[in-house]
Write a structure and sequence with these properties.
The structure is a single chain. By secondary structure, the chain is of the alpha/beta class. It has 2 domains: 163 residues, Rossmann fold (3-Layer(aba) Sandwich); 151 residues, Rossmann fold (3-Layer(aba) Sandwich). 41% of the residues lie in helices and 14% in strands. It has 13 helices and 11 strands. Helix 3 packs parallel to helix 5 and helix 7 crosses helix 11. The longest helix has 19 residues. It is globular, with a radius of gyration of 21 Å.
Length: 343
Amino acid sequence: MLGFLALAKFHWGRLTKNLDNSFYIQYSRIFQEKVTTLLGNATAVYCFSGQGMELFKVARQKGLICICDQISAPINYHSIKIREEAITWEGWQKSKDKLRDKAAWYAREAEEWCLADAILSPSTYVTDALLSEGVPSQKIATIPNAVPEDMYSGRVHYYVGTRPLRILFVGSVNLNKGVPYLLEALKILGPNKIQAKFVGPVEIFREKLNPFLEIAEFIGNTPRTQVAPYYDWADIFVLPSLSEGSATVVYEAQACGLPSVVTPNTGTWIQDGVDGFLVPIRDSSALVEAFVKFIENPQLVEDMSRNALKNAMNYSYEAYRQRLEYIIISLHNQLLNKPSFNE
């Protein structure tokens, strides 16, 4: 019988907005020391990245399988893009970087990669980032994220072209999400062709957003349970992020039947030209080009909406459970020198 202990993910932002990562590291260490007393008959442990180093050390001594879920791009990889955007768009956003001592956080990640028997990656973007940090490819298993099947009731979306195209953005309105590039694209097209709503906490200074109020409405922080009406309102979804793990909002949009315009760095599984369009990061012109395709060919909204609903079935909780179970059982059998269960 395979015993399994999972260490829950911390929601750092909910704990505090003012403390840096030295607090999180200390909190994680104390929590994990307590968790080690619960190992019992477990044969495997599962932790989120940056939150499992101490537990993995104890687990390895006991011969347990260690699985690390790399929920986002490694801190070094992610931080480079954040720094670059802060320079490019200086004065747009107050720094909210809590990970001031990135070396300490990176050291934790790096040691977890060494200790882990397997590292779960939610996207090819994160997988590529791990490989660039020297993580052996044989340790990495790429498994898409998921959303609850019953949380979003999808429908086919239609657009006839007689009104402005409705564009929805969901997430924190900040530099990492590529918001300035999106705003530039919206302004190029103008209010006669597009109408946009931004749903999520606004972190960019309001004076920077004022020139775009004719084409964009900033809804502000909205509970996840209240976002569904905005998905229903929209014709297409957009997220031009610079660095993610695998953005849940894109899965949600897909489950609601929305075609998506996203960057590869969102870490999602949009099929370019099938259920949406992939565009390069930091490219307003590419965003304009993608939006114009829908405006000039309204049928695309319906066609891609149907494909989005079909593709969303691949990213249910049940699909995720099956993928994760396969990895865990395969690892268990390999370490016991037994043939894999599917052989």
